[in-house]
Amino acid sequence: MAHIMPLFFNQPEDITTHSKMMTAVQKCLTADQTYMTLAKSLVTSAFPGKVLSLFAAMIVHHIKNYSRYCLSSGLLAVRFWQQMLNSDYQHNGGSGLSGLLSWLTSGTTAPNSLLVRSSAPQFPWFTIAVLSLETQGELASGLWKNLLLELYADPQTTLEVALKKVSKELGLGQVSSSLLSIYRWGQQVVDLPADHPALPITMQMYFMLHLARVPPQPRQYECSSVINRFYQGFVNQSFLNKIKKKVTAALEHHEAVMAKESDEDEKDASHNVQVAERVKLLRAMQSWLEESRLYDSGVYLPALPPNLLPKKLMQANWEPWPEAVDVDATEEAGRRLLRVWDQYRKKASFSSTVGLSPSASPNRQGRQSNPDQRTVPRKTPTEAILKRLTTYESPQPPPPIPPMSPLHLPHIHDSTLIDQDALLYLVQRYTGLVVEHSQTVNLWCSELCALDCVYRELVPQLWSNAHTKTILTAACTPPKVGRKQPECSGHASIVMEFSEARLNEGIKVRIDQNREQHDVVLQRCQKPPPLQLCQAALISSCAGILGQEFVRGHADCQESLVAQVLEWGGKLGGLLAPHFTPYVTPKHVFLMLYSTLSPYAPSAPDHTFMLLSKFDIERWLAESSPNSSDRSELINTIAAAFMSLLPGPNPTLLMVLELYRVHLRSLLAFKFPEHYTEVLNVMLQISASTQEDCGGVSSGLWYDLMNKISVGITTFSPEMERNALNQAIKEYAQHQTILSPCMVEDTLKMLSNYFVKQRLEFGLYGLYPKYRLHTQPIATFLGLISHAYIISAFHTKYGTPQEEIVREVWSGVDSLWAGWVTPLGGRDRQSFSPWLRHLTHDIRLLLPWAPSDTSSADAMEVKSHVLAVIHAHFSALPWHHLHPSLQDTLIFTKVVEQYLPECHNFIGGVLVQINWNKVVQSAMSPTSSSTAEAQGQGQEAPSAVKLHTCLLNLLVRISMEPSVRQSSLLQTLLLEAESFSWWLVDSESFQRVVNWWVMSCDPRIVLALPDRNPVDVAIIQ
Q1: What is the residue extent of each domain of the chain?
Q2: Whether residue 371 has a cis bond before it, omega within 30° of 0
Q3: pTM exceeds cut of 0.90
Q4: Nearest to 577 by CA among 604, 555, 608, 605
Q5: DSSP string, 965-986
């Protein structure tokens, strides 16, 4: 069995369903239950017996040595034996004497329990698993929770009465108090030996129930304990004392173990720590039984002494605690079983070696007695297996192959093969048969699909629920119990209402018809194809073989093949295009064939794609080694194809355009950067002539170029975010080496001249309308060139004065972006094209964008280092001469209300220098008819109201700026402002300013503290 069982680890059902094997397993499990052992068991317990111990040792051997059976872990072996033992229990558990004993003892334990008795100390680990499952069921049913609540709600009731009431409310049937999990865990604690490794875990599970508290109720903030109600009475109190004694005995045992191990120097330190932690846990358990504070209603667990382990009390964790698991003892039990198994195997091996079988003993004794006799050499396993196979009957030969009927081919005259028209007619005729049959099969498939769809719609309608009402008559049958028989009052009429499932006969007929039609079509599809179709398929395959043999790879056939495909197309194109091999042709023929395809792309995109896909540009470049002029001619051909196909985008051309894009990318990468400038000019021409993009092909060309010059550094894509794009541009500029400084400078000058020229010729509203589809990739490419030019300029002109380098770099970058961002006017007007000069004769300055594009413009942002220089120079101006208008004040307010810290400091320094008293008096004086009219009606001018509102907002906000608060002019301004007409400010504006000030100021300024700032006092006043 030890050698057979591992063969079925992956398929245990092969064993569990085999009755003879299960019978053998059952006999092994019950081999120790002889009459002698049963008689001895009445006096002393000798469980487990020798055979059962060996059986357990065999299982442990399988699990520990899983690698011998090509398993990654012992989990599969554990599952196999678990399923095996479960199957054995189900196979034999309910029959014979064991079934009778199980029925007789079923009342001694919980209903549906796997334990025959309340505790099972001989099976401690199995008992832990069973009690854990049954305890979780007790908790999930609400029995434990409701029992605690009932005991807490009625202090006078007994445990039995409360349990009976709770079980009745929950519909659990009658449950005895002796079957509660707390008593069963406690009984297991009492019955286990003090030195057993399963005792600490069992004690943990017991204390999870022993320390349980009443669940909190509404308007109740303290959790009480009613555990003392479980130990009322002499019997229960004696039971609790036994538990205390067992905990004390376990503590003394582990303390003795810890003292013994502390005296041994060679003992592992980690093991000593585990033993110490286990002793600490047992001491805490002993204290839990004695400490009365744990059962008080107002106990605060974190405040308990450390020796009580308050963290464990707060966890309420049903998982085994690491301190309670004695890993060493558990592993030692497994090693003990392995030693038993090894001893048994050695003994069995010795017996098989020394012992002699009856049939072979005379000869074997003779051979052993004669040492000079030559021993028979042992055979290899392969030879032994082959010799064993020869003892069986020879297998039957394979069945004969039925003879195939010859295919009757049509007779073709030799003249037909010579006449081109006749041959093409013959081929087209048979290809037409293939196409016709394929269309027929496609029609059958569509018909099957339609029938299945109808069937799926009809099936849900086959049965329906119909509300039915019927009356049943029940006869009066008096009971046959008692002397006096009651009289019957007659038959009883019972009204029955129910939903009846009724068959829809019409739908059933339609379903039957549908399935009949389905079978007819299916049989039609399964019929063998007609002879003409087989002949046509053979001729079509022969045509393909002929093309592969006489066309593929022959340079003289490629031109006519392309002409035939483009002229005839259709079915003929599908047959000829796969045999097109342009790489075998000379260079001039290759270029000529490539250039002839693009004009046919709009009318025949499929055939153009098939032929174009045969042009392996990378292979042609590597094998043919074309010169620079040939490559340039190919680039011009691709450019012409793009400019002819992109202006009128057609989704069917997307595959063709993508192939051209791949070919252009291959040409760009070959001997880069030889064709870099040429490809860049091509992309500028394509971008200028393309107003509608087809699948992002034209924009993708720019990203192909950028990814080529930044290969190995970064990758660009249209989906990149702004921050990632800026970071990629910086990395490229700092690490790029593929473009020399001279090439970077030439690229910058070429792009500058090109875009400025485009702006002067077509730029009535700038370049954005013309390059609207390509603005993002062009801007990214210009950013790459700008950053690369700046870095290369500083590296190549090392030692040149810094101001000269900055002036030169700024001039180059400014010219690169001038066509996009610089307004045109003045002398630039002389370079305008005539039509543009005529349209703009009355416009002084020509902006680089259309008025409708202003909403799409990016947010302007000035860097802090630029603002610092500007503010430093502007601050030196005589701002006390400034007399701001209402519009200026509104602009001040708009700036201050935004989060611009640098600008706030500058605005604050300017505002404290202005003579606001004069400004306010000017606003209050009647300088206009509207102001005079408003004052004549007893109202102030609207400008004065707005001025005071803005001024209040400005003064409060700049008073919170740290740099402005240090100025003495601010306090002077605030004192002068006390005399302003603040009564003009409406309540809503005043409340908005106050809310901002309350959220921004320090709350301590309302207190009269010695270090309070006078600015805060002035603001409050």
Answers
A1: 1-92, 97-328, 621-711, 737-877, 880-923+942-1018
A2: no
A3: no
A4: 608
A5: HT-HHHHHHHHHHTTS-GGGS-
